[in-house]
Amino acid sequence: RAEELQVLRTKLKIKGKDQYVVVTGPKGVGKTVLIRSATSATCGVVDVEVSPGSSTDKILHDAYCAIVNPAMTTSFLNYERMALRALWFYNIIARQPPTIVVHLQERMQGEKFASITGAVRKLAGQGFNIVVDSSTHAAPFELLNTRREKVIELDYMRAALVSRVDKYKTLFETLEKYSLVPLVWEVVGGLP
After folding, report:
1. Residue 101, strand partner residues
2. Cα(114)–Cα(48) distance, rounded to whole angstroms?
3. 155, 187 in Cβ contact below 8 A?
4. Most exposed among 51, 75, 151, 176, judged by the fewest C-beta atoms under 10 Å?
5. In angstroms, what CA-CA distances link 32 with 40, 101, 159, 174?
6. Residue 120 CB burial class (10 angstroms; 0-12, 13-18, ≥19)
7. 3 Cβ partners below 8 Å, 6+ apart?
8. Would you call 41 helix, strand, or coil by DSSP?
9. From CA 61, how far away is CA 78, in angstroms rounded?
10. pLDDT tens digits, one per residue of 39-97
């Protein structure tokens, strides 16, 4: 996934205000690993879990709390104001805004989409870096069609591609010797 990793890192660097990145694809394809790899050397990265049906206000509250990292949450503190102060601090000291990685949880049939689009637009408009980690069925249509998003679509890695990775060459040669490639590949969930 070196190519996708480079694309994501590039998109995070040249992202303009009001822009966000969506990494999408089937469940288990490696979206979260790709995002963690791309942001591993970046300071100020926080994760926000979003359940199906979550409201815009709840998503924003959770994102602001993740930025300010309070020991406990109360109803009388203004977490948005505190998060905007943290944003200012990051831009001055680290010369980059914090990155909020929004993990959209898998949506089951009949469940409502999370109200993610408005929350992501507001956070991006405030100047935060936003990366949305979403399986194919978790992201609402409007999130992927606002002209503000940059979408990276991942698909399953094919056996021919994985077998060329230096770390796995010996493994695949041994599996091939015993005619086990199709069986092992089916168990790990890739495409032959």
Report:
1. 47, 131
2. 13
3. no
4. 75
5. 12, 9, 21, 30
6. buried
7. none
8. coil
9. 9
10. 888 778 899 999 999 999 999 999 999 998 866 667 778 889 999 999 999 888 888 88
